[in-house]
Amino acid sequence: MAKNFDVVVIGAGPGGYIAAIRAAQLGMSVACIDAASNADGKPAPGGTCTNVGCIPSKAMLQSSEHFDQVNHHFSEHGIEVKGVSLKLDTLIGRKDNVVKQNNEGILYLFKKNKVTFFHGTGTFSAYVDGGWSIKVSGQSEEELIAKHVVVATGSAPRQLPGLDFDEKKILSNDGALRIPAVPKKLGVIGAGVIGLELGSVWRRLGAEVTVLEAAPDFLAVCDQQVAKEAHKVFTKQGLNIQTGVKIGEVKTSAKSVTVPYTDAAGAEQSITVDHLIVSIGRVPHTQGLGVETVGLKVDERGFVVVDDDCRTNLPNVWAVGDVVRGPMLAHKAEEEGVAVAERIAGQHGHVNFGTIPSVIYTSPEIAWVGKTEQQLKTEGVNYRAGSFPFLANGRARALGDTTGFVKILADAKSDEVLGVHIIGPSASELIAEAVTIMEFRGAAEDIARICHAHPTLSESVKEAALAVDKRSLNF
Prior knowledge:
FAD binds at residues 58, 122, 153-155, 322, 328-331. By secondary structure, this protein is an alpha/beta fold.
């Protein structure tokens, strides 16, 4: 017998589980469907982010940072450590436990908010009286009838043509998080967020890492000044970064992977590595959703087509997160999930794409929001820029991490903050102040006039704002 709900959410990643919880908070009867399982077959809600993305990668970045610190930086603090060894199984076990805690946390939140969870694959079946028929295929078969459906099925890693992931030699982000032994040599195709973060993890643990990027410029999505600093620092750390390359036919064997490529100068090159991480972007995941059955419209790249409010071409069917247009970021998905739940409830949910921050969790961290300097120049915007180096920040000196700077771009006439770019310690946390200022269309002067605690890294944001008016006090 079919079970009726006001809202059925397909997918329990950041967009899906947050949409389900918010809809339940607004008084609706809600179900959420997700097929992911952990090693023992139990439900593993949280999507790519929780299971093989944001959360486990940050756990491994933290562990590898500790290993790097004890090996290379503790002596600066007068701490002498001898005989350091790595227990990789323990490190990966800790990562798995962090993931499990997050899985269990989401299931708890479902229970707390009275969201009914179904462990299985959700598929559109038909339009019926009362809404949409959704079939759940899992350990048990269910039919749900939903007045509204939210598609939040996320994305999957993009493969190189003709090179499938086997997660042993050719690795996606999933396999890259569970390499059984530290490789002597590791190749990474793609110098984006995933490639740089995972490359950094294994470099710190002792691998020789080569990163191959097809684009001619390193981190072209970032402000050029930030990208230049990042390239210098990562290269000094030991990452071998090659840009402007063209990958040839990759050959695999039981023991190695050989990657031929043409470098930026046109010379034929080749690397042989123990494992190859392929991180060349992600593709929307709609397999098994039944889009053809009900006529749900997708574009030529496979994304579910939505309007500005995340409505699809079907009545009362919505879509959020990686499966639709816009940046493939967990926090973007969450904001869309909340907005859609509120729109279903008759409210006016809102997502400002202009103030969605981006972060790369390397060391140093990189974070930004708004326009880059090159974008402002292209658009012909008259702006002023101010920057402040962490080298001149007292807290950064005390931490022993003075790499990088804060850069603020403001409208030359109104002083409205148009973009903030940070490379340095705790950039992922510092960017929140910039997002807040920009959401309220604040000025650089507003940041400059706010009292920041001393000594803190956040003072560098204030000093960069002062520098927009050429009156930095500490540099």
